[in-house]
Protein backbone atom coordinates (compact mmCIF):
# COMPACT_ATOMS: atom_id res chain seq x y z
CA UNK A 1 0.00 0.00 0.00
CA UNK A 2 1.49 3.33 -1.09
CA UNK A 3 2.17 5.89 1.63
CA UNK A 4 0.13 9.11 1.43
CA UNK A 5 2.51 12.05 0.84
CA UNK A 6 2.47 14.67 3.59
CA UNK A 7 0.90 18.00 2.84
CA UNK A 8 2.88 21.20 3.17
CA UNK A 9 2.50 22.27 6.80
CA UNK A 10 2.88 25.89 7.89
CA UNK A 11 2.92 24.60 11.48
CA UNK A 12 6.20 22.76 10.82
CA UNK A 13 7.52 25.82 8.98
CA UNK A 14 6.59 28.00 11.97
CA UNK A 15 8.29 25.63 14.42
CA UNK A 16 11.52 25.71 12.40
CA UNK A 17 11.23 29.50 12.01
CA UNK A 18 11.01 29.98 15.79
CA UNK A 19 13.89 27.56 16.37
CA UNK A 20 16.04 29.51 13.88
CA UNK A 21 15.31 32.84 15.59
CA UNK A 22 16.27 31.34 18.98
CA UNK A 23 19.52 30.08 17.45
CA UNK A 24 20.21 33.50 15.90
CA UNK A 25 19.92 35.22 19.29
CA UNK A 26 22.54 32.84 20.71
CA UNK A 27 24.91 33.14 17.73
CA UNK A 28 27.44 35.97 18.12
CA UNK A 29 28.23 36.02 14.39
CA UNK A 30 24.56 36.57 13.49
CA UNK A 31 24.10 39.28 16.13
CA UNK A 32 27.20 41.16 14.95
CA UNK A 33 26.16 40.85 11.29
CA UNK A 34 22.67 42.18 12.02
CA UNK A 35 23.84 44.96 14.35
CA UNK A 36 27.00 46.40 12.84
CA UNK A 37 26.95 45.70 9.11
CA UNK A 38 23.88 47.96 8.51
CA UNK A 39 25.52 50.74 10.54
CA UNK A 40 28.45 50.75 8.12
CA UNK A 41 26.03 51.28 5.25
CA UNK A 42 24.25 54.27 6.79
CA UNK A 43 27.08 56.36 8.25
CA UNK A 44 29.01 57.11 5.05
CA UNK A 45 26.02 58.05 2.81
CA UNK A 46 24.56 60.24 5.55
CA UNK A 47 27.82 62.13 6.03
CA UNK A 48 28.17 62.62 2.27
CA UNK A 49 24.64 63.96 1.90
CA UNK A 50 24.94 66.28 4.88
CA UNK A 51 28.21 67.85 3.71
CA UNK A 52 27.53 68.10 -0.04
CA UNK A 53 27.08 71.80 -0.92
CA UNK A 54 23.50 72.82 -1.57
CA UNK A 55 24.77 74.68 -4.63
CA UNK A 56 26.13 71.50 -6.20
CA UNK A 57 25.01 71.12 -9.78
CA UNK A 58 22.24 68.66 -10.44
CA UNK A 59 24.33 65.80 -11.93
CA UNK A 60 26.68 65.86 -8.93
CA UNK A 61 23.82 65.96 -6.44
CA UNK A 62 21.93 63.23 -8.31
CA UNK A 63 25.04 61.04 -8.27
CA UNK A 64 25.42 61.62 -4.52
CA UNK A 65 21.78 60.70 -3.91
CA UNK A 66 22.08 57.60 -6.10
CA UNK A 67 25.19 56.48 -4.21
CA UNK A 68 23.51 57.04 -0.83
CA UNK A 69 20.45 55.03 -1.82
CA UNK A 70 22.64 52.28 -3.26
CA UNK A 71 24.21 51.90 0.19
CA UNK A 72 20.70 51.31 1.55
CA UNK A 73 20.16 48.49 -0.97
CA UNK A 74 23.42 46.84 0.06
CA UNK A 75 21.74 45.90 3.36
CA UNK A 76 19.05 43.57 1.90
CA UNK A 77 21.64 42.18 -0.52
CA UNK A 78 24.57 41.47 1.80
CA UNK A 79 23.04 40.79 5.24
CA UNK A 80 20.85 37.83 4.13
CA UNK A 81 23.52 36.45 1.81
CA UNK A 82 25.92 35.84 4.69
CA UNK A 83 23.23 34.46 7.00
CA UNK A 84 21.63 32.15 4.42
CA UNK A 85 25.04 30.85 3.35
CA UNK A 86 25.51 29.78 6.97
CA UNK A 87 22.06 28.19 7.30
CA UNK A 88 22.85 24.63 6.18
CA UNK A 89 26.61 24.21 6.12
CA UNK A 90 26.93 26.06 9.44
CA UNK A 91 24.46 23.76 11.18
CA UNK A 92 26.11 20.76 9.57
CA UNK A 93 29.51 21.76 10.97
CA UNK A 94 28.01 22.23 14.44
CA UNK A 95 26.23 18.88 14.28
CA UNK A 96 22.78 20.43 14.72
CA UNK A 97 21.50 19.70 11.20
CA UNK A 98 20.99 15.94 11.51
CA UNK A 99 18.43 16.12 14.38
CA UNK A 100 16.25 18.33 12.13
CA UNK A 101 16.58 16.24 8.98
CA UNK A 102 15.58 12.99 10.70
CA UNK A 103 12.22 14.56 11.62
CA UNK A 104 9.27 14.24 9.20
CA UNK A 105 9.72 17.83 7.95
CA UNK A 106 9.54 18.08 4.15
CA UNK A 107 12.45 19.68 2.31
CA UNK A 108 10.16 22.47 1.03
CA UNK A 109 9.09 23.22 4.61
CA UNK A 110 12.70 23.12 5.78
CA UNK A 111 13.80 25.57 3.08
CA UNK A 112 10.87 27.97 3.59
CA UNK A 113 11.45 27.97 7.35
CA UNK A 114 15.13 28.72 6.85
CA UNK A 115 14.39 31.44 4.29
CA UNK A 116 11.76 33.19 6.44
CA UNK A 117 14.06 33.13 9.47
CA UNK A 118 16.57 35.17 7.44
CA UNK A 119 14.06 37.32 5.53
CA UNK A 120 12.02 38.66 8.46
CA UNK A 121 14.90 40.07 10.54
CA UNK A 122 16.55 41.35 7.35
CA UNK A 123 13.44 43.35 6.41
CA UNK A 124 13.11 44.71 9.95
CA UNK A 125 16.73 45.88 9.93
CA UNK A 126 16.69 47.21 6.33
CA UNK A 127 13.46 49.21 6.69
CA UNK A 128 14.47 50.52 10.11
CA UNK A 129 17.83 51.75 8.78
CA UNK A 130 16.15 53.29 5.74
CA UNK A 131 13.62 55.04 7.97
CA UNK A 132 16.43 56.45 10.12
CA UNK A 133 18.24 57.57 6.95
CA UNK A 134 15.16 59.42 5.65
CA UNK A 135 14.46 61.01 9.04
CA UNK A 136 18.02 62.33 9.40
CA UNK A 137 18.03 63.66 5.83
CA UNK A 138 14.66 65.37 6.32
CA UNK A 139 15.73 67.05 9.56
CA UNK A 140 19.42 67.89 9.08
CA UNK A 141 20.17 68.01 5.32
CA UNK A 142 19.81 71.18 3.27
CA UNK A 143 16.24 71.37 1.89
CA UNK A 144 17.53 71.11 -1.69
CA UNK A 145 19.45 67.93 -0.88
CA UNK A 146 16.52 66.49 1.06
CA UNK A 147 14.18 67.21 -1.85
CA UNK A 148 16.51 65.34 -4.19
CA UNK A 149 16.31 62.25 -1.96
CA UNK A 150 12.50 62.29 -1.76
CA UNK A 151 12.04 63.24 -5.43
CA UNK A 152 10.84 60.86 -8.12
CA UNK A 153 10.59 57.16 -7.40
CA UNK A 154 13.63 56.86 -5.10
CA UNK A 155 11.67 55.90 -1.98
CA UNK A 156 9.32 53.56 -3.88
CA UNK A 157 12.27 51.76 -5.48
CA UNK A 158 13.81 51.22 -2.05
CA UNK A 159 10.58 49.89 -0.54
CA UNK A 160 9.78 47.53 -3.43
CA UNK A 161 13.25 46.19 -4.17
CA UNK A 162 14.35 45.63 -0.57
CA UNK A 163 12.39 42.33 -0.11
CA UNK A 164 13.02 41.25 -3.72
CA UNK A 165 16.80 41.66 -3.44
CA UNK A 166 16.72 39.94 -0.06
CA UNK A 167 14.77 37.02 -1.59
CA UNK A 168 17.33 36.55 -4.34
CA UNK A 169 20.24 36.68 -1.87
CA UNK A 170 18.53 34.20 0.46
CA UNK A 171 17.79 31.54 -2.15
CA UNK A 172 21.24 31.91 -3.71
CA UNK A 173 22.84 31.65 -0.26
CA UNK A 174 20.83 28.57 0.74
CA UNK A 175 21.57 26.89 -2.59
CA UNK A 176 25.29 27.43 -2.05
CA UNK A 177 25.04 26.38 1.59
CA UNK A 178 23.40 23.04 0.72
CA UNK A 179 26.29 22.17 -1.59
CA UNK A 180 29.22 23.65 0.32
CA UNK A 181 31.44 22.06 2.94
CA UNK A 182 33.08 25.28 4.18
CA UNK A 183 31.26 28.20 5.82
CA UNK A 184 33.63 30.95 4.70
CA UNK A 185 33.72 29.78 1.09
CA UNK A 186 29.92 29.61 1.07
CA UNK A 187 29.58 33.15 2.46
CA UNK A 188 32.09 34.65 0.03
CA UNK A 189 30.43 32.99 -2.96
CA UNK A 190 26.98 33.99 -1.70
CA UNK A 191 27.97 37.67 -1.52
CA UNK A 192 29.26 37.52 -5.10
CA UNK A 193 26.08 36.02 -6.55
CA UNK A 194 23.95 38.64 -4.75
CA UNK A 195 25.52 41.40 -6.86
CA UNK A 196 23.96 40.98 -10.38
CA UNK A 197 20.38 42.11 -9.54
CA UNK A 198 21.79 44.84 -7.28
CA UNK A 199 23.87 46.13 -10.19
CA UNK A 200 20.76 46.50 -12.38
CA UNK A 201 18.90 48.41 -9.66
CA UNK A 202 21.98 50.60 -9.16
CA UNK A 203 22.00 51.53 -12.86
CA UNK A 204 18.40 52.71 -12.46
CA UNK A 205 19.22 54.67 -9.29
CA UNK A 206 22.14 56.42 -11.01
CA UNK A 207 20.07 57.18 -14.11
CA UNK A 208 22.29 55.12 -16.44
CA UNK A 209 19.11 53.25 -17.33
CA UNK A 210 16.33 55.83 -17.69
CA UNK A 211 14.03 55.24 -14.71
CA UNK A 212 10.31 54.89 -15.33
CA UNK A 213 7.37 53.34 -13.54
CA UNK A 214 7.03 50.70 -16.27
CA UNK A 215 10.71 49.74 -16.00
CA UNK A 216 10.52 49.54 -12.19
CA UNK A 217 7.41 47.36 -12.36
CA UNK A 218 9.00 45.14 -15.02
CA UNK A 219 12.15 44.62 -12.97
CA UNK A 220 10.12 43.99 -9.82
CA UNK A 221 7.91 41.37 -11.51
CA UNK A 222 10.97 39.70 -13.06
CA UNK A 223 12.80 39.56 -9.72
CA UNK A 224 9.66 38.26 -7.98
CA UNK A 225 9.33 35.49 -10.59
CA UNK A 226 13.00 34.58 -10.15
CA UNK A 227 12.56 34.42 -6.36
CA UNK A 228 9.58 32.07 -6.71
CA UNK A 229 11.31 29.81 -9.23
CA UNK A 230 14.47 29.81 -7.10
CA UNK A 231 12.56 28.14 -4.24
CA UNK A 232 11.71 25.15 -6.49
CA UNK A 233 15.23 24.99 -7.91
CA UNK A 234 16.81 25.02 -4.46
CA UNK A 235 14.35 22.33 -3.32
CA UNK A 236 15.44 20.19 -6.28
CA UNK A 237 19.10 20.68 -5.31
CA UNK A 238 18.44 19.79 -1.66
CA UNK A 239 19.67 16.23 -1.07
CA UNK A 240 18.67 15.12 2.44
CA UNK A 241 20.47 11.77 2.06
CA UNK A 242 23.77 13.44 1.11
CA UNK A 243 23.55 15.87 4.01
CA UNK A 244 22.90 13.01 6.47
CA UNK A 245 25.27 10.35 5.17
CA UNK A 246 27.58 12.10 2.74
CA UNK A 247 26.22 9.93 -0.09
CA UNK A 248 23.83 10.97 -2.82
CA UNK A 249 20.24 9.84 -2.33
Radius of gyration: 20 Å
Order of helices and strands: HHHHHHHHHHHH
End-to-end gap: 23 Å
Write down the overall mean pLDDT.
82
Q: Bin the helical content.
A: over 70%
What is the 3D form? elongated
Largest sheet report = none
**Could you say which structural class the secondary elements and strand pairing correspond to?**
mainly alpha
Total number of strands: 0
Tell me the strand percentage band: under 5%
* Unreliable stretches: none
Q: DSSP helix count?
A: 12
Number of domains: 1
What does this molecule look like?
The chain has about 250 residues and is mainly alpha-helical. About 80% of the residues lie in helices and about 0% in strands. The protein has one domain (about 10-245). The protein has helices at about 10-25, 30-50, 60-85, 90-95, 100, 105-140, 145-150, 155-180, 185-195, 195-205, 215-235, 240-245. One of its GO terms (molecular function) is ABC-type transporter activity. Keywords: Membrane, Transmembrane, Transmembrane helix. Pfam families: ABC2_membrane_2 (PF12679).
Amino acid sequence: MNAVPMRFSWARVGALFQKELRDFRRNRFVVLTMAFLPLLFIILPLVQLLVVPASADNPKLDAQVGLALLYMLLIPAFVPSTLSAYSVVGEREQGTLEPILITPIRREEFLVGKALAVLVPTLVVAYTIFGIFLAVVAVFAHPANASAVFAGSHVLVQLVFTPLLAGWSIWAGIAISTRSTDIRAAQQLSVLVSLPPLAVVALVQFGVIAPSLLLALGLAVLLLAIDLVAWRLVAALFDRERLLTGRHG
